[in-house]
Input
Amino acid sequence: METRIRTNCRACGHAGCGAYVVVEDGRATKILPDKEHPISKGYLCRKARGFMEDMQYHPDRLLYPQRRVGERGEGKWERISWNDALDTIASKLNQIKTESGPESVVFGHGTGRSHHRFIYRVANFFGTPNVLANGHICYLPRLAVSKQLGIPVPIVDYDNHPSCIMSWGSNTINSNADEYIGVNLGLNLKRKPQYIVVDPQRTKLAQKADIWLQLRPGTDVALAMAMMHVMVKENLYDHEFVENYSYGFDKFVERLEEYPPEVAEKITWVPAEKIVAAARMFAKAKPAAIQWGVGIEHNVNCANSDRCLIFMSALTGNLDAPGGNVLFGPPPGLPRMEFCGQEFQDRADKMLGGTRYRLAASINRISPHVVWDAIEHGDPYQVRALMIMGSNPLLVRENSARVERCLKQVEFLVMADIFPTPSTEMADILLPAATWLEFDNIADYWKSHGYIFPRPKIVEPPGEAKSDIEILNELGKRLGFADEFWDTYQDSLDYILEPAGVSWEEFKDMHYLHNEPQYYKYKTEGFKSPTGKFEFYIQQNADWGYDPLPAHVEPPESPSSDPELTDKYPLVLTTGTRTQEYFGSEHRQSKFLRKKHPDPLLHIHPETAAARGIAHGDWVYIENARGKVKHKAQVDDGIDPRVVAAEFGWWYPERPAPDYGFRDCNINFLIDDLNVGPESGATNLKGLMCEVSRVPN
Output
């Protein structure tokens, strides 16, 4: 018998697309789009199909809790019970807490995981302020900057049809990031608004643009400041907003004097006349909106990049305006930080890097290198245990060689995942996780678009796999905090929904809950900043020892850095090129997706390739002072001859454990984890220097 169950797809890390799952005889067989879904509007990407066809019932899924019996990385395991696994974990973590303090235990999670609220709740009651995620280079800098400015994250109001859209470091049709979902941009582009794209590569979106600004990787701040220089000089800004609702504009204008388009051209490689044209186009259009992606957060200057784009929206009168960048606010239900617990702020002195990366610490985030410093060197104290759920740090963390050393060195390592990965091979205790089809949950609870959606359990998990939130709920009780957790994790869903006036049993049959947006809220409410106004000059930064105004900071490696370095490694390397097939290191098990995209690609200009004897499809080495990895050459004249662009997250699940081929092609072997942004600890993933050569036959 066939049934269709409405749900919210989580085939990728960010999720959010409405779907129907077809179930036949207790088995999920097909996934179909929900054409009435208010965010995805009938769109589903190929990852959804790849997940359903190849991964939900893949023979390599982890099925039982296991204990390592050999050395780390040898792949020798013994099956144990859930009671044994959870008792062992709780006993060891509490022992370490007693001997070394709770901060010597670090919890961790991957991108956009719906269980991260439980990770923070367990960590909070356990007493550690240290939670390892990837937020230092993804979304969370803009969350921290927005909080500093006294606002939620500004989101493009596509439903009110911007007259001008600027995509900045966001290849949305490939990445579908966060609240946006690529279909919303696509539908709006059919209306033929003015369109600006800022990207080092000529993506399909750049081909649609009226103006394409092909900047040098890592120079976003210089470009944004030059555009705002034009807006101020030509009197194209919103005087009412500036005069009535802002603070520090005069000091900001003084800083803008340092960034005329001619100066920015030398920094960014974007012609001055294009900078002027883009500034005029965006400032004159009403309404106008900026969709920026994590591309601008992949460098040491990411906080200023985020700050500049919010400044540009405010300067042009598009902040919280219909069709602009709107402050939608939280969805119905319990505020997420109330679920997580807010005591982290009281432990900033114990948080790794908490007094160094003050902006990150303001939203309870840490930079990965501080964890590795604590494991390797006991600086500022020894980290003895890691519990990481739904993440593959050997692939997705910077400086993979160092990550591997630390995962081998740490005293106790717990991993939970759906599949074995190079990282799970390092674990002492390995836990089998359920997929999103196999447990009840609330979707999009962590996002800023004002919606939440039910994601009901559809099929039973295989073997003894359990959902991450069930694992964490049970672990919280065993750690000694039974009063702060629930008899069943479904009870926690009722707790979240209680302020919305519904139970989980009621909500799971609903389409969604939504808080309707209100516009121009600052006119009556002001901003939740120290001055109550929009702060172009941020005194808090000055108090913390940072620059209170945005400024371009040259990447630690660049064409103008050490001549010996650039002679040996003359090409600018940008990493993290997005693809439709994969999310981070996920989905490599899918035959459907791998058929379309079997290997990692390096985008390289024809002139650059020819000078090195490289043809399209050749395997090439990408090399710098930190190592050498392989990609296939994608010869492409849509990239500057001085730049190459690599993908990330690559490994080969079909190859033998414990390595799975990740040493061959993982671009994070080439990335330093210590050259980081001063405010948020963001790592420099773009604007590195490298050389490329053909792999001999």
